[in-house]
Amino acid sequence: MDSIVFESVSKIFRHRPALFNWLGNERTEPTVALHDISLNVRSGSVLALLGPNGSGKTTMLKVISTMLLPDKGSVRVHGADTRNEPQRVRGCVGFAVAGERSFFPRLTARENLDFFAALDDVGPKLRKARIEITLARIGLLDAADTLAMKFSAGMYQRLAIARALFKQPAVILLDEPTRSLDPAARTDVWDLVRELSMDGTTVVIATHDFQEAATVADSVAVLHQGKMVSYREITGFNAGDVRSLYFQGAGELAPSDADFLVESWQ
Amino acid sequence: MSLPTLADKIMAILRRDLLTAVRYRSAFMLTATGTMAELAAFYYLSRAVGPGFRPEGLDYFSFLLVGTGFYTFLVMGIHSFLQAVQEAQQNGTFELLMTTATPPPVLILLSATSAFSRSTVQLLLYLGAGLLIFKGALPRPGIAASLLIFVLSLIIAAAIGMMAAALQVAIQKGSVVLWVLGSGAWLLTGTLFPVASLPPPLRLVAQLIPITHALDSMRVALLQGASVLALSREIGILSLFCAVLLPLGLMMFSYTLRKARQEGTLSSY
């Protein structure tokens, strides 16, 4: 069964320039963030979204989470349309955003989780135990009573993952989840993703890390300037294979090619 | 949404706001000091004006005490909706809050419940300090009418607050518009002096502002002990404002939220 279905999804961001735009010369042309994307993500599988900065990875995650509405096409999550049944979608999606600014700075990690869990309909009896388990699982139990504003970038990232896991959703969206993590914590997150997948949770992960994609993902979608240039199963792929796939799709120069050009020029 | 679930969410929001407030240690003391200074200013203003000035037959300090106290309560309540959105935009939680299992309009209303609770405590302290320290007088308050007017005014403030929140989502600088409107309302609603002192065209405009009716009827109920029956016309007007403004506020908020999702400006601030 398909957990997430994209059907010809397009998303364009229009820029409304400021008054007296000649003062600052702000961009006025629209940005095509997603162009005619169609794909199906199997329940319990892990999809890695790869692509250069600004290629549309985060936009795809936001469209799934209902933070953004598509301009054209439709997105369905567990059969619910993100445009027409957003509350049903929100009930089954957990989103670990990439930015550090997504918590109440003067609440502790435990208090932040408790607050968001209450809004996500996790009952008070369940919350206490789940907070302990989730914080322990993500390696933040020692910092449970520290104010969020005192967290490092990596700690924020782990707390964001904890928040996404907390309501035990059927779909988890991870936006560059290991960007600021140390190698041991990164491996922990990879193990966690594989465990979630084995338990039947669908995971969509936006990443720049080929090793990460090869380790955790069942399939990869390569995005470039809002278009999906490649989409395939990657069972048995290593980081090098994913890297080749990426550079074929994204149409960028692989580092070895770039080195060759530099050498020729010299 | 079941009642226990709703209560759980309200408690979570109250707890968040209380913890945040107490962790800004100096803010509470500064607010209290500011309030006392304001009361003292009104006290000496009323003494300077002299006992001969009795707007609508009321003692001027008591007129100011109820007028400014209730006006501040309503305006702070309206502003709290905008502030809830603005703070969430600034600390990066807005997108996430708008995608929880709690429908966004419900969440904004619940957030305002917490802000109104805080404002109610502040109003009671303000009135209490005015009565005890500065010897204001509520000779025979009409409790039933006061409570009814309080509840209706609360609903109106919530409705205008939803519009303010919508404005913040739409233009991200809603506080500027609210400041302009607030300044106008301060002049027109009879907070410091009776509306009858205004020229006829402005008096007409004042009648179109719900806060004018809220302040006027609250004064009559609290300071002259008017009954619900005696205030039936004003209560009818306030009820009409509630019936029109509340659905309008909810519609505006839902519309701007949807538009922000479409345009990708949900996290802009």
Report on the structure:
The complex is a heterodimer of chains A (266) and B (269). Chain A contains nine helices and ten strands. Chain A is of the alpha/beta class and 266 residues long. Chain A has one domain (2-253): P-loop containing nucleotide triphosphate hydrolases (Rossmann fold, 3-Layer(aba) Sandwich). In chain A, helix 4 (124-137) crosses helix 5 (153-166) and helix 7 crosses helix 8 (239-250). The model of chain A has no long low-confidence stretch (mean pLDDT 87). Chain B has one domain (3-263). Chain B is built from ten helices and no strands. In chain B, helix 3 packs parallel to helix 6 (143-171), helix 3 (60-90) runs antiparallel to helix 7 (174-188) and helix 6 (143-171) packs parallel to helix 10 (232-263). Chain B is globular. The A-B interface holds A 11, 13-14, 33, 59, 62, 65-69, 71, 86-87, 90-91, 93, 95, 97, 99-107, 111, 114-116, 118-121, 123-124, 147, 163, 167 and B 5, 8-9, 11-13, 15-16, 19-20, 23-24, 91-93, 95-103, 107, 258, 261-264, 266.
Task: Report the mean per-residue pLDDT of chain B as an integer.
Answer: 87
| Biggest beta sheet summary of chain A | 6 strands, mixed
* Element pattern of chain B in H and E: HHHHHHHHHH
- CATH class of chain A, please? Alpha Beta
The percent range for helix content of chain B is: over 70%
What gross morphology of chain B would you assign?
A: globular
Count of DSSP H/I helices of chain B: 10
Secondary-structure element series of chain A? EEEHEEHEHHHEHEHEEHH
Class of secondary structure makeup of chain B: mainly alpha
| Overall pLDDT score of chain A | 87
Give the domain tally of chain B. Answer: 1
Flag low-confidence runs of chain B. Answer: none
Number of strands of chain B: 0
- Report the portion of residues of chain B in β strands: under 5%
Structural class estimated from helices and strands of chain A: alpha/beta
